[in-house]
Amino acid sequence: MADGVKPRVRVPDEATAGEVIQIKTLISHPMESGQRRDDDGNLIPRSIINRFTVEFGGESVIDVALEPAISSNPYFEFEATVPSSGTFVFTWYDDDGDVYTEEKTVTVA
Amino acid sequence: MKTRMLTLAGLLLTGPALADPDDDALVINGEIEIVTEAPAPVHLSDVFDTIYSGWRYRNDETQVMESDDFENPGMLGVEAARDDWVEVAGTEEESCASCHGEPEEMAGVRPVYPKWNEDAGEVRTLEMQINDCRTSRMGAEPWKYAGEDMVDMVALISSVSRGMPVDVATDGPAQSTWEAGRDIYYTRYGRLELACANCHEDNSGNMIRADHLSQGQINGFPTYRLKNAQLNAVQSRFKGCIRDTMAETFEPGSPELVALELYVASRGNGLSVEGPSVRN
Questions:
Q1: CA-CA-CA-CA torsion sign (B145, B146, B152, B158)
Q2: Which of the residues A5, A22, A23, A26 would you substitute to probe the B interface, choosing the one with the greatest number of B C-beta atoms within 10 Å?
Q3: What is the per-residue pLDDT across B30-45, written as a single tens digit (0 to 9) for each?
Q4: Which residues is B51 bridged to in the sheet?
Q5: With 90 as the cut, is the pLDDT of residue B5 above it?
Q6: Do B71 and A73 touch (CB under 8 A)?
Q7: Where would a tag sit more exposed on chain B, N or C end, judged by fewer CB atoms within 10 A?
Q8: CB nearest to B70's CB, from A4, A10, A72
Q9: The domain A6-108 belongs to what CATH superfamily?
Q10: What is the DSSP letter of B57?
Q11: Burial of residue A20, with CB atoms counted within 10 A of its CB: 0-12 exposed, 13-18 middle, 19 or more buried
């Protein structure tokens, strides 16, 4: 497992029905491209987050394929419409097979 | 003739837009108001009327990253340092927290460093003080002067002082070190024969290739640079600048760079502590 991997998300606690809310996510991750070499000239193996998904109430909100050129600590910011109270599930997929998840519940008044 | 007039008009139009810092205001997390422009300290009064944080020279996309800790990648280093803060290290079974409590109790420390240390009889940077704590109080190995652990810890200690004005002492026992730093600032180094002042006084506001030259203030250090995607210590930046003059550089932690740090910090007396800032 890559060192120091920690997901973070920011979602408003409350929203009105149909409101477009702003969501910010960041996962600390080295995003090693697989192109670099160490001091001895050996290739450093690729180790990146290759996919990021968000679901709301079982429905896909966003599904991102990440490539090696993306910098460390990938940050995503996007907007989503919230029809009713529910839970956002954020999932990051690591090259090494690890999966990191976060959940945030939004209450619609 | 017509072509020449058009060219001239074009130059006039594009010239002033690049020359000055912008008018944006910086508020972090919607609550910490940052002073990014202040009257120049007395010792600088024949050079500048007003001093500006380097933040004012960056474009809007870079500026906005610093206004929210969630978007500021430098805060990842601050988080890492919070773990180190409570970690017991060394033979004395102590952590930073054993003596200092919460990191927030260090508010007010960053603005006055580098600072004269009476017991040691020298001007000390925050890094030197941290390593002194590690070796003499904790019985732990010192950190590399500009290594990741150290930069992260300096970022943490800076972050709790954000918004406070830089206020380093230039007189008293620190005066000779300050003067040594001033001499370095105005000394031309390297095959390009450039002093700090040639860029950051004579040409601040102008473009150096694709980059907008600031006054070279260090109130925002440690700085997360988009260029290398990591937190950078102030003395690493000094080293990079001197290297770019094609000179043999001083090493981070050397007496020369400690003196230079004190002097350059004093040029920013009155600006807010910003570290960890975001720059290109």
A1: positive
A2: A26
A3: 999 999 999 999 999 9
A4: B38
A5: no
A6: no
A7: N
A8: A10
A9: Immunoglobulins (2.60.40.10)
A10: G
A11: exposed
Give which of B108, B100, B104, B161 is closest to B134, Cα–Cα.
Answer: B100
**Cβ-defined contact of A73 to B76 (cutoff 8 Å):** yes
Give catalytic residues of B, as residue numbers: 241
Taking the C-alpha atoms of residue B159 and residue B178, their distance in angstroms, rounded to an integer, is 25
- Nearest-CA residue of chain A relative to B227? A71
Minimal CA–CA distance to B84: which of B117, B32, B136, B133? B133
- Report the residue of B66, B71, B230 to disrupt the A interface, i.e. the one with the largest count of A CBs within 10 Å: B71
| Mean of pLDDT values over B158-183 | 97
Contact A71 B70 (CB under 8 A): no
Whole-model pTM: value is: 0.88
Main-chain dihedrals φ then ψ at residue A12, nearest 5 degrees: -60, 145
Q: Name the minimum distance, in Å, from the CA of B106 to any CA of chain A.
A: 25
* C-beta separation of A15 from A82 below 8 A: yes
Is residue A20 helix, strand or coil?
Answer: strand
Report domain extents, chain A. Answer: 6-108
Compute the nearest-CA separation of A9 from chain B (Å).
9
Beta strands per DSSP E along chain B: 26-28, 32-34, 37-39, 50-52, 115-117, 122-124, 207-208, 211-212, 223-225, 230-232, 277-279
pLDDT per residue rounded down to tens, chain A (109 residues): 567 788 999 999 999 988 999 999 999 999 999 999 999 999 999 999 999 999 998 999 999 999 999 988 899 999 999 989 999 999 999 998 999 999 999 999 8
Tokens for B280, please give them.
Answer: 């290109």
Question: Buried b / exposed e across A72-90, counting CB within 10 Å, b at 16+?
Answer: bbbebeeebebeeebebbb
